[in-house]
Design goal:
The structure is a homodimer.
Chain A lengths: L2 E2 L1 H14 L4 H17 L9 H9 L10 E5 L3 E9 L1 H18 L2 E9 L6 H9 L3 E6 L6 E3 L9 E2 L3 E7 L2 E7 L6 H10 L8 E2 L5 E2 L3 H4 L5 E2 L5 H15 L18 E6 L7 H16 L15 H13 L1 E2 L2 H22 L1
Parallel strand pairs in A: 3-4
Antiparallel strand pairs in A: 1-14, 2-3, 4-13, 5-8, 5-13, 6-7, 8-9, 10-11, 10-12
Helix pairs in contact in A: 1-2, 1-11, 2-10, 4-5
Chain lengths: 348, 348
């Protein structure tokens, strides 16, 4: 049950990926992304994912050193081709471009195709909001990795299609990071790994029957995540699949998509263009205070704003350290040992 | 149980509102909006609402003849003040402005404050999509008419905050028109009117207890609509309250908001700026065909695309006629009789 400080984990990320040939910038993006995800409590996008990314780099699914091409560009939008580069770097560059353009005007949209896994979308929407803008980010699987059957259907036809919103607020950032399904696929995978049942309502099996057996999700035959609120979540997922897939040119969910990635749609809106930035932030501040002033429901200690549970977890874990499961840690250690052996052999 | 043709209902709308002083353009907008809502099966935004609008006009809550002011404008955005004019006209003008701007560039956002009830949001998103653009429309209650408690709270702090997306597709328009709650408030009101129970999970009472008594929603003390998927629907509603309330200057939900309205955020995205319009529409077409190709779940006849249930209802009602409840019809008849009496008295 190892527990680490953030800087220890940053060192681990550095040691693994720099040995694999990642540039200092790529290493920094991975350090920021993975360790921040762990700090916020989103462990599924934390260091747990290192072995997967190592495999992807070795198989050239993630192409280290790739630079994005700007395919189309105007003052308020751009279409980028990520050339299968590291998602954490491509996503960061796309968000920075959206911020730069929106700041010059009122709003900007940037799409991105041929880009590997972006990880936690809140990273990019928050980055936009920290610059004083409203951020929206959504991705599909660039046609592949479907996990959701349409409402009224039995076979997977949509990616999970997560989305994230972030809004600048005087005492931090409002951040919502959700999939339009009852739960994200990662939560089902964790239950399956641990041999636990899933709650009723998370997934259905290949015949559309509600089940608590997490293995019924992957199958074979594969089941489906349950869309949030039935047709509403199905509809939201379908919209995201089009925004991210069709506007980027990466493609919507389809059969035989080949290489999967995170085709991406990002939007940045500049509140200062719609009035005074300060008036916007004061309005948001007063609204949040009003929301918080509600009497608290039984079973809750207080009313929280989206993003606050994560911000509090970050404070807690920054002090108490980040817990990494034995299995994850031994996987990472094995990779590190192998990389060190390999580099010392090369230096002989 | 009167059943009407669309043109009969258009005549009724004309007769009521032109006698109240609505301009030909205002009458046309009301005809299109109310009768189309009935045709699509969204009766809560159909002719049922005529008596409410008549009251609002008489109380000067809806200001007939008002023109919008353009408060801020650039090539990609605008902030409009509706001067409390008719929502159906102000919303239509705002959507047209968003379309014009997005067509010249890549995307455009238009906000609108001091505007009365917009009605069915799908009207505006669909209008944008029929011009070949992606449309998004969201409104709050300009601070007032709250109906949703925050996640973990007991007291209403947010408007219902509905949103609508529409996307052009080769064989029509994809249209999603939802609130981030399990059901819209109108459905609870209809159950209360009919003396029926509501299904478990729609509403909670003032102490946060799930209830099937529709009267527990309005109270006193008032209950709350249940947010879609708990914290996810709460988060989406909070984002909409800020997009619509803070970016328009109309204001987010707050105590003592005074006059309620529909502060509005609209976004239009031009797919042609991100590639070829035809390539976009082909991608969407192929995606929809793939979604439809799923095996059908038990209890369903086929997989439908968002907006199709409404489009089919329109075909059906265009043939079979539009049913209007006796009570609604007698209310409308009473208003018409009174208006006719009043105008014949004036002509004596």
């Amino acid at each position: 049950m190892p527990i680490f400080t953030p800087s220890e984990l940053r060192q681990v990320v550095h040691d693994v990926f720099s040995r694999l040939g990642a540039s200092p910038e790529e290493v920094r993006r991975l350090q920021d992304h993975l360790v921040e995800s762990n700090l916020l409590g989103h462990d599924s996008h934390g260091v747990w994912i290192i072995p997967l990314y190592v495999d992807m780099i070795r198989q050239q699914h993630i192409v280290l050193g790739a630079k994005p091409d700007v395919v189309i560009e105007s003052s308020s939008h751009a279409v980028l081709d990520g050339n299968w580069g590291l998602g954490q770097l491509m996503g960061w560059l796309a968000a920075r471009l959206a911020v730069d353009k929106a700041r010059q005007g009122a709003l900007a949209a940037v799409t991105l195709r041929n880009c590997s896994h972006l990880g936690r979308l809140g990273e990019y929407s928050q980055m936009i909001a920290r610059q004083g803008l409203i951020g929206f980010v959504a991705v599909n699987g660039q046609g592949g990795v479907q996990g959701v059957a349409p409402w009224g259907g039995l076979e997977r036809r949509l990616s999970v299609n997560p989305m994230s919103y972030a809004i600048p607020a005087p005492d931090g950032v409002i951040m919502l990071d959700i999939s339009p399904t009852v739960v994200a696929a990662g939560k089902v995978a964790v239950k399956a790994l641990r041999g636990e049942r899933v709650p009723e309502g998370w997934i259905v099996d290949s015949e559309g029957r509600s089940t608590t057996d997490p293995d019924a999700f992957e199958g074979p035959p594969p089941g489906s995540l349950v869309p949030l609120g039935g047709y509403k979540g199905y509809g939201l997922g379908l919209i995201v699949d089009i925004l991210a897939g069709a506007l980027s040119g990466g493609g919507c969910s389809r059969p035989d998509a080949g290489r999967w990635g995170n085709a991406t749609f990002m939007l940045a809106i500049n509140p200062a263009a719609f009035g005074e930035q300060r008036a916007f932030e004061t309005e948001v501040k007063n609204f949040l205070a009003y929301v918080r002033s509600s009497r608290v429901a039984p079973g809750f200690e207080e009313v929280l704003i989206p993003g606050e549970p994560e911000a509090r977890e970050k404070v807690r874990r920054s002090r108490a350290g980040i817990f990494v499961e034995d299995r994850t840690w031994s996987n990472i250690t094995a990779i590190l040992d192998e990389l060190k052996r390999h580099s010392s052999e090369r230096s002989l």
